Amino acid sequence: MKDTLSRRTFVQAMAVGAAAVAAAGALSGCMEPKKADVGKPSTEADAQASAPSDGKVPGTTATHVDLTGADVYNTMCHGCIAACPVRAYVKDGVVVKLEGHPEAPLSAGSLCLKGMNQLHTLYSPRRVLYPMRRTGAKGADNAAFERISWEEAIDECAERIADIMEQHGTYSFFSSAGGGGSYVGAMLPPLLSGMFMAPTGFEPGAAQCWMPRNATAAFMYGGADQSTADSSVLETFKGLSKADKEAGIKNDMNCLVIWGTQPSASQTSQAGRGLAEVRALGCKTIVVDPNFSPDAAHATIHLPVRPGSDAALILAWYRMIFEEELYDKEFTKYFTNLPCLINPDTKLPWLATEVFDDYEPVTPEDTPVYVCVNEMTGEVEPLPFGDPAELSAALDPQVFATATVNGKESKSAGQIYKDEAEPWTLQRAEEFCWVPAERIREAVELYTAPAKEGKCAGITHGVATDQMEIASQAPLGLLGLDMIMGYVNKPGAALTQSTMGGPMGPQLDGTNQWGKCAADGTQPRPTKGYLAQLQYGYTVGATEAANQERVAQSDPSALAVYGKLWTDRLGLSNHRGLSAWGHSHIPAVREAIETGEPYRPRIWVELSGNKLAMLASSGAWYKAAMENVDYVVGQQPIFTSFHIELADIFFPTEEWLEHPHSRTGQLNYTFANPGIVHLGESVNPMHPWMLLADAVSAKLNERLDSVVFTGTGQTISELGLTFPLFKLGDRGNSDTTCWKMELTGVGAQLGLGEDATIDDYMAKLRNNSDAYYVSTPSEDYWTYGQHLVKATDGLPLGFATESRKCEVYCTTMLKLGRTGWPYCYPTAFEEPVDSRIGTFGGDYSPICRVPLQTEAPEVKGADGYTLPFDKDFPLAITSGRVPYFHHGTMRHAPYARELFPVPFIRINPETAAKYGISDGDWVEVSSRRTQGSDYDVSKRGTERSYAGEKTQTTKVSDPIRTIAYVSEVVAPNVVWMERFWNPECFDKSQKTKTGGWQECSVNVLTNGIDAQFNEVFGSYNYRAFAVNIKKSERPDRVWVTPKEFEPFMPTSENQVHDEIGVLMGNKDLVTDYYQFATADAPAQG
Amino acid sequence: MKRAMVMDLDRCTGCQSCIVACKFENNSGLGNYRCDIVDVGPYGTHPDIQMYWLPFQCQQCENAPCIEVCPTGASYRDPDNGVVLIGDQECIGCMTCLAACPFSDNAGAARPSARWFNEERNVVEKCTLCNHLTAKSDGVENPADSLDEAHAVPPCVHNCPTKCRHFGDLDDAASEASQMLAQAKAEGRPTYTLASDEAQATFVYILSESTAPWNGMGEWRSLVAKG
């Protein structure tokens, strides 16, 4: 059996000997150093061990955790997405200690504070362990809930959902998810909604995180993206594990550019550890970050780019690399599309068959022949794909060229890029990006130096640019840089086809999952399928006939409905890159909720943490949801602001020590990953939506004559369909099945068969130090040169793009903006994207450009690149991770909060002085969201932002407050703070309660309303917008000093408050959520 | 015997995981700290700045003044391994040792402080090098069993995300701490101890000039927010 234990038992087990809870009272103010100052070299003097003078050893009361008789389980942390292997010590059924697993190839025994603090979140007094139904009005102040059974919860929920859908049509349903180690991920909302024939689903962990980089990498070369956090760039960590060392494999990372990411703060014991190791091995690092992050502090060169100006800095790199001919000429000529001459009308490469009447392609139908200027002849000639050694005898493609083709002056793609970069001299970049020109030069020299010796550098590109206007421009630029340098599929490169790269990963037939190629001549040309459910979508690299044949497998009626969902998805008419993960545009969803146009989503199934703290412009979201959403379903291990304010029904889910997780492994090691304990009636986070999918479908199927598919106005009967629209594999709904689904991988590792029970798993895992293994031998795991292997057609494999080359000039961006291809197939958008949105002459830009920044500080030379400077908001604000939390998690972890009680705002001393702010002062932070915007609200936001037209909107929130951290870590006029929410604001001890999302949360200020959303992905402004600051006072309710967090500790007292009352559901059913503290505690488990 | 830690500041990123590891291991409760991280710097003017993070706790002084001044004999050295400890049954919370310690706040109540006054228990607490785990350890961890008393290391060392912390007997050349120190010397990286007058701190800090110039504990700022 899984051990089912209460928090009380946890407290008893933890506290051996004297209770060790104490504090030295409130601490404040600075303390002068006493005697310690600048030190001296260490002495070699011997220790003088001395026993106590009277020879008696003083007595000590043990306060440490007692592990006598404890069992040890190997599992994996899910405090973030890194998943570090962990040992959990379990005593009397209680997890009493966590530590890193020493055999972990990357984290190597370490475990960061997020992982360790799971002991407190697991046994938190804030856990809600039973399904809950709201009994009073929405809102935090007088929130009241009652316990209900799972059966009742699911049935009631399904009934309400079916009723509303029957009344308002299928598009009234919407779902969302969110990041966080053990929670439901980004891929689910479009699936859950799609099953109910509703198009709306989202999570910020898409357009705002990873998807732009991930999708752009797929478009440009069909390979893994540049994200380290998402386990795409792993080459950095080669040679660190025991298996690698035993295989004699060494690290090859010469130089790593760390752009807009801070692994040491976000994945501290995994990527942070790896970076510490490779820096010690001599790898040079260049960190591009407005903040002096831990990785910046340890960097060879730090480029503190002005928030939001990264695209200009990237173009300055291109300019210098082109100008000084630092790029890899052979790779650029033969394996990128930069030499292709571009048709100025279509902006697509000329095909040889369009230019030369009698041209017979020398390559198969799936591999087009383009044209270029041949440097040997000076003529426009066919540019076939092929082995450079064979082609170069007669063809030297000119990268930078202009020629007349079919009577039209046509530039090469390389020339177009060069022209775009031309204005961005190092001097101009210094003015625009606030980075010294000389320092940019040093960085480019460091990055390009390995190429001169035939070696590699690489760029790892983080989340920062996904959260600004430049969400597509930055990955276009940074992927392209590695490509023109030839830093592809080589030791020491970030760009490889050797990792899966997540859901959009490369598909190389005939390789193992790590891209190890089969022998020459046995693999077909690589393809990349952009496929959703029901065979919808296009496989790039396959012929049109092959694609038609594939989609013909699906029921045409279902496929038509599914295609309609795709093109009706909110915001996709503008931002078609959201198709990458099938998501709606988040600001467009909020507007549709507000206005009912083009349809109103009114049933919200929310599967993550705290949407009121994590969505941009949270005040607008709060208002929209309060006023216009009819029914809200939430799930989480605790009540967050979202649940206490909005949820009508709540499903309790497990923390990561309670459930098995399918995301196992670090590099080529796989670890068993069981649930170890279990509390209350909490369930795997994947469980409730499965139950709902079936229960809602069943109820809808009783009303097929009256439920209308909003997309066409027809009833489901008329369409000849039933719910769900599609099925997701062989899933089941019982607890055991859910366990099994997640345990499939674990079971295989342990040698357990299909019929194994949970007891079998636990028995196998208890005190088993071998419950992990190396799944792929190191020599098969680190693989290179995939594009050079000979394919079945005799050509090199190349890449999974139309051209079979690295598309530095990304043609897919152009086609995506015109029809939605390659996602929208066989249906398509009838109109191209609004010409005000596409910045490349009405199209999505295929190259890195500097887009318009909505809100910026006063910048020299910014005309045309920023909207007019607003002196009411003169400071640029940006954000980044801190090691204490992952996304919105763990604000109820007391050992995290005592160290980081509020989201300190980093302010440069010069700026602080100007505003009369000292270190440690409370500061009010405001933005246009707290004052009112000057954009035209008569137009819907997704349009008005592009026009930049001005009128005044009402404010959506009050300003926030936090504490100043005055330091040189940021530039003057730049401030920095991380997301936050304050669960203490609805603690029972508070006289008046709020949801805790208004007090300190930067997302009150962020711009998800009228920003210049990224053209392709619709990404809004979590970062790089404008604020003002002034000295202020501590807000009500917010806790700051360590002892204030005592109610978050799993103490006996808290246990009492938790085990009784409505939260635990064993008292009268209708009870005020806040009035459960005084009753007697019942016996539990 | 000279049990101590060797800290590689070229690795530390100030994540504070050591603080939390310590608090869980020793059930410290809120507001009590035996182990801390001091931000030293940044020095210079943006963008020309440098800083390091200093993992900080009782420095296991060779001539520990806390032992000399303790009126009840509560402060003592483990007779077997020389670790400086406090017997809380003898400690009367008089705070004399706090004043004598070169690295402590006189009230043991403001971070960072090597010794901390636990108000509820009315005793002074500090880092014990987790002697309850490590008393007989050689400082070379057994990957298969971190509770192996012949090899255990403190959890702040075991869990340190960047492998900044190295524990062991500096008089034993085979210990992890000695090995790290020897490696740093071979690499030509400078080593430092915190200045402590006659007390003679034993913890060794490794810090390259390229990371930042050594400045001890710096001009430390309050590590706790204003309320």
Would you mind describing this structure in some detail?
- The complex is a heterodimer of chains A (1085) and B (227).
- Chain A is of the alpha/beta class and 1085 residues long.
- Among the domains of chain A are: 219-323 and 423-506, Dimethylsulfoxide Reductase, domain 2 (3-Layer(aba) Sandwich); 339-411, no CATH class; 875-1042, Barwin-like endoglucanases.
- Chain A is 27% helix and 13% strand.
- Chain A is built from 36 helices and 33 strands.
- In chain A, strands 8-7-19-20-21-5-6-33 form an 8-stranded mixed beta sheet.
- In chain A, a hairpin with a 4-residue loop joins strand 12 and strand 13 (379-383).
- In chain A, helix 16 packs across helix 17 (437-452) and helix 27 packs parallel to helix 28 (758-765).
- The two termini of chain A are 14 Å apart.
- In chain A, 63% of the residues are buried.
- Residues 1-53, 500-510, 730-738, 937-941 and 1052-1085 of chain A have low confidence and may be disordered.
- Chain B is of the alpha+beta class and 227 residues long.
- Chain B has a single domain, classed as Alpha-Beta Plaits, CATH 3.30.70.
- Chain B is built from 6 helices and 10 strands; from the N terminus they run βαββαββαββααβαββ.
- Chain B has helices at 17-26, 65-69, 96-100, 131-134, 155-158, 176-186; strands at 3-8, 35-45, 48-57, 75-77, 84-86, 115-118, 123-126, 165-169, 191-192, 204-206.
- In chain B, the strands form 4 sheets. A 4-stranded mixed beta sheet of chain B has the order 8-1-10-9. Chain B has a two-stranded antiparallel sheet with strand order 2-3.
- In chain B, a hairpin with a 4-residue loop joins strand 6 and strand 7.
- Chains A and B meet through strand 4, helix 9, helix 10 and helix 31 of A and helix 1, strand 2, strand 3, strand 6 and strand 9 of B.
